[in-house]
Amino acid sequence: MAKSIDVSDLNIYYSDFLAVEGVNMTIKARSVTALIGPSGCGKSTFLRTLNRMHEVIPGARVEGKVMVGGQSLYDSDVDPVEVRRMVGMVFQRPNPFPTMSIYENVLAGVRLNSKRISKSDADALVEKSLQGANLWNEVKERLNKPGMGLSGGQQQRLCIARAIAVEPEILLMDEPCSALDPISTSAVEDLIHELKEQYTIVIVTHNMQQAARVSEDTAFFNLAATGKPGKLIEMNPTKKIFSVPDEEATEAYISGRFG
Amino acid sequence: MTTELSAPPTSKPLRSIKQPRLPKQAPLIAVAVAVAAGALLGLSLGWGLAPIVVLAGLLYVIGLTVWSRIVETPRAATDRLITSLVWVSLIIALIPLVSLLTTVITKGAPAITGTFLSTSMRGVISGPGGINHAIIGTLLITLGATVMAVPIGLLTAVYLVEYGQGSRLAGAIRFLIDVMTGIPSIVAGLFAYALFSLILGPGTFFGFGGSVALTILMIPIVVRSSEEMLKLVPSDLREASYALGVPKWRTILKVVVPTAMAGIITGITLAIARVIGETAPLVIAAGVTDSINTNLFSGQMTSLPVFVYNSYSNPGSEVDVAVQMAWGAALVLIVIVMGLNILARVLGKILSPKTGH
Question: Fewer CB within 10 Å, N- or C-terminus of chain B?
Answer without folding.
Answer: N
